[in-house]
Design a protein that fits this description.
Helix content: 25-40%
Number of strands: 16
Largest sheet: 7 strands, mixed
Strand content: 15-25%
Radius of gyration: 24 Å
């Protein structure tokens, strides 16, 4: 630790600090991300218990007991008002009026959905607490009651189920107390590759320079294939497995291929693998004491029906598909007094567009397919490990010694790797210099698909930006995480050598 470090916080906490002059944490972040008890951390500190809900034994075990002093001492739940509103200094910088005026308004503007909510009320601003986008999205989907599960989907699946008790089991994250709102718990499971494998297959099915085949066409072709894809079973674990078995070496597969199988069979098998993987995650969550009665999800008609049939549970589709944004509005309505609490606001603001019921006959069929899916997953686990060795997964690239980190478990080495995600991207060199002045030796950089622009002026972390960061200093270690479908296109840009 550098003794000059005054505070350690989330970037959302820092933004709230700049807005109000108050350094506070979100109980939602603290519960889900920091291993705090999300209920107890809201308690008023006492002489006998100055750090309620904090994992003091964890900090002591990893050799940084002083961390508890650096983290925010005050914790506020989502929708809680921070301080006395917009500070005079922040108001001057933003051209707004400072202070807090309590008044209801129909004009609610969530200014930054990842971390805070600003309410424009009679030209004055109050600043209310928020949380991570995915979990604010749970609120926007109305997923706040025990037995409800929402699927946060995209390249991967995140299964978030609300519960009464904070029980856990292997392969399950949580349950987190006080999340997504006080008085509740939620646990999560996940699949590492879901939408990403469909995008991969679609790209594979597109010939040369032809226009990419549409998802609608692929779905229509797959809909003509019976459940089970006529004996073709896929594993969606292309990038490892999270739930029910946490295994980074797990890999995807297609089993049962014959000359009869077509593009439609493969597309349907991949879709089914995602849905069956969701069922496996639900089973693991249920075994940990977190059963669900329904699933909140969005997607195409085939996608929705397949999830309902494969899991045997109704699928609920919400009217508003932008769940994080609606979640912000829900919290904003509570903060300014339109609704008395989050549950009431959800009841008034979150609406169901339709409900997809499972087809009993299809549920029975998918139960048979699921049995084969689980056997295939289990039997290939050892093979995936062997393949990892064959591909070089057991090499020493990136070892601790290579990066100057001691192997000794007694020397108390802690690597702090600040992220540049919330930095001033127009002055990356200056931001890196600030990190170095704070004695940071590593910098964390995320590179995602969908933001790749091959330009030195690109406002994103693509190869050009990363190489520019490399030129800023030969001493800093860039900890680059690539969440991409095709890493080869980045390797060609020289990122692998950094």
């Amino acid at each position: 630790w550098n003794e000059d470090v005054e505070a350690v916080c989330e970037y959302q906490d820092y933004i709230n600090y700049r807005l109000t002059g108050r350094l506070v944490a979100s109980s939602l972040n603290a519960s889900v991300r920091w291993h705090w008890d999300g209920e107890k951390c809201l308690e008023v500190p006492t002489e006998d218990n100055p750090y309620p809900g904090r994992p003091l034994s964890l900090y002591a075990k990893i050799g940084i007991p002083e961390l508890v002093e650096k983290l925010p001492h005050t914790v506020i739940p989502p929708a809680g008002i921070i301080g006395d509103g917009l500070s005079k200094k922040a108001a001057e910088e933003l051209g707004l009026r400072p202070g807090l005026i309590v008044a209801a308004s129909e004009f609610l503007y969530p200014l930054f959905i990842f971390c805070y909510i600003c309410l424009i009320i009679m030209m004055c601003l109050i600043v209310a607490q928020g949380g991570p986008d995915a979990f604010i999205g749970m609120i926007g989907l109305g997923c706040i009651e025990p037995g409800q599960m929402c699927l946060i989907t995209g390249s991967s699946h995140l299964h978030c189920v609300v519960a009464n008790e904070p029980q856990t089991a292997p392969g399950v994250w949580g349950a987190y107390r006080g999340a997504p709102i006080p008085g509740r718990c939620f646990a999560e499971g996940g699949q590492s590759s879901t939408g990403s494998i469909l995008r991969w297959a679609r790209k594979l099915f597109t010939c040369g320079d032809d226009d990419a085949i549409s998802y609608k066409t692929l779905d229509e072709e797959a809909a003509a294939i019976p459940p089970g894809s006529e004996g073709l079973i896929a594993l969606e674990t292309f990038q490892g497995s999270r739930t029910p078995v946490t295994d980074p070496l797990a890999r995807g597969g297609l089993a049962g291929l014959t000359l009869k199988h077509s593009r439609a069979h493969i597309w349907r098998a991949l879709m089914e693998s995602v849905c069956l993987g969701t069922r496996a995650s639900i089973d693991a969550l249920s075994a940990a004491g977190h059963s669900c009665d329904e699933i909140v999800l969005a997607g195409s008609p085939l996608w929705l029906q397949m999830h309902a049939d494969a899991t045997g549970r109704p699928v609920v589709v919400c009217e508003n598909s932008d769940a994080p944004l609606l979640g912000c509005a829900v919290l904003a309505s509570v903060a300014c007094g339109v609704h008395r609490d989050v549950a009431t606001a959800v009841g008034e603001m979150v609406r169901t567009a339709r409900r997809v019921e499972p087809n009993g006959e299809m549920v029975d069929k998918y139960t048979e397919v699921y049995s084969v899916y689980r056997k295939l997953s289990s039997s290939l686990r050892g093979v995936s490990s062997a393949i990892s060795e064959l591909r070089g997964g057991g090499s020493s690239f990136g070892s601790q010694q290579e990066f100057g980190v001691s192997d000794s478990a007694d020397d108390g080495d802690v690597i702090i790797s600040p992220s540049l995600l919330a930095s001033d991207w127009s002055n990356i060199k200056g931001e890196i210099q600030r990190c170095m002045e704070a004695k940071a030796k590593w910098i964390h950089v995320d590179v995602f698909d969908g933001v790749f622009l091959n330009s030195p002026l690109a406002f994103t972390f693509g190869p050009q930006m990363v190489q520019a960061m490399r030129r800023c200093s030969d001493d800093i270690i860039l900890d680059v995480h690539m969440c991409v479908v095709d890493p080869r296109r980045f390797v060609g840009e020289g990122m692998i050598s950094i």
